[in-house]
């Protein structure tokens, strides 16, 4: 006999129906399928349906389709509903306050629930959270802008970027961006993200000017090995060549943020701590966010953090 607990499949049931019609005994069918005779007895009882064999005469016959439908119905009834216990709720809320997404709670922090289940609990108020508490509430679609046909990038086009950078084959190739905290012309963040390891460098700078960007970049270059930089065509990046080799700077097409998708996606992690409209932050808080993002697990890194990835974990 086969191992205990192995369920019959629809293919097994087709064979049972066929051999039953041919007049084979339940014991013989069990032998042919490698099953216990009692399994076949129970299966035939489960799949019986009243069928007219000739005018005015009916008898019970085994139907594979009826048996399969009954089996699936019973399986649905037997699935236990996952109960949101206080312990699990506290654990989910703990990681939520640490700005972990439901997917990372399940994959990296071993929350014993499905991702969709956690979202269901959030949307239906079981966790005491509202739409405002969601990491990324749904936003309305915006109409995309188009660049002037006469536009020229500030330096080498992204189209000239070597294939080894495009394919993320080595660490040290960074995308650069600024994250504006509020509409007022005050402090903002300079953010650099490694294309391969997703390692982030975050610095608080006085304003969104080329001078402030270059001043911060000078210090970053003393602390980190940067092989190339990919930037957008914002005015704050049009003088990068003053502090970094021009032949290793690449500019994306205008209004094409997807060309710096690594940078753009990781900026969303920063927004979990510093949402739009934040008026004040400190170098200490920015340093904390940098450490947090570099220890946050990433799906693209097989749920390792950038720090673990760089350390060969």
From TrEMBL:
Pfam family, one: HTH_38
One CC-aspect GO term: cytosol
Coiled coil: none
InterPro entries: Integrase_cat-core, IS30-like_HTH, RNaseH-like_sf, RNaseH_sf, Transposase-Integrase, Transposase_IS30-like
Domain of life: Bacteria
Domain Integrase catalytic intervals: 158-313
GO biological process: DNA integration; DNA recombination; transposition
An MF annotation (GO) of this entry: nucleic acid binding
Keywords: DNA recombination
Stated name of the protein: IS30 family transposase
């Amino acid at each position: 006999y086969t191992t205990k607990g192995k369920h019959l499949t629809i293919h097994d049931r087709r064979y049972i129906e066929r051999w039953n019609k041919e007049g084979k005994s339940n014991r013989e069918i069990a032998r042919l399928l490698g099953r216990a005779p009692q399994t076949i007895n129970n299966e035939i009882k489960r799949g019986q349906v009243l069928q007219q064999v000739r005018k005015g005469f009916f008898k019970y016959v085994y139907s594979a389709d009826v048996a399969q439908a009954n089996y699936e119905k019973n399986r649905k009834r037997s699935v236990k509903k996952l109960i949101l216990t206080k312990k699990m709720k506290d654990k989910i809320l703990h990681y939520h306050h640490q700005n972990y997404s439901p997917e990372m709670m399940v994959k990296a922090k071993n929350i014993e629930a499905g991702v969709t289940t956690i979202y269901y609990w959030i949307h239906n108020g079981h966790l005491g959270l509202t739409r405002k508490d969601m990491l990324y509430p749904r936003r309305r679609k915006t109409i995309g802008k188009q660049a002037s046909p006469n536009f020229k990038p500030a330096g080498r086009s992204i189209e000239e970027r070597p294939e080894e950078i495009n394919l993320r084959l080595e660490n040290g190739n960074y995308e650069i961006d600024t994250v504006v905290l509020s509409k007022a012309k005050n402090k903002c963040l300079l953010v650099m993200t490694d294309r391969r390891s997703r390692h982030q460098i975050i610095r608080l700078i006085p304003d969104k000017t080329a001078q402030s960007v270059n001043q911060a970049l000078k210090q970053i270059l003393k602390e980190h090995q940067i092989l190339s930089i990919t930037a957008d065509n914002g005015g704050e990046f049009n003088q990068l060549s003053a502090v970094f080799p021009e032949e290793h700077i690449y500019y994306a097409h205008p209004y094409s943020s997807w060309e710096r998708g690594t940078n753009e996606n990781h900026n969303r992690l920063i927004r979990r701590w510093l949402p739009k409209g934040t008026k004040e932050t400190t170098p200490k808080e920015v340093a904390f966010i940098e450490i947090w993002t570099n220890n946050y697990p990433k799906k693209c890194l097989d749920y390792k953090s950038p720090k673990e990835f760089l350390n060969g974990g």
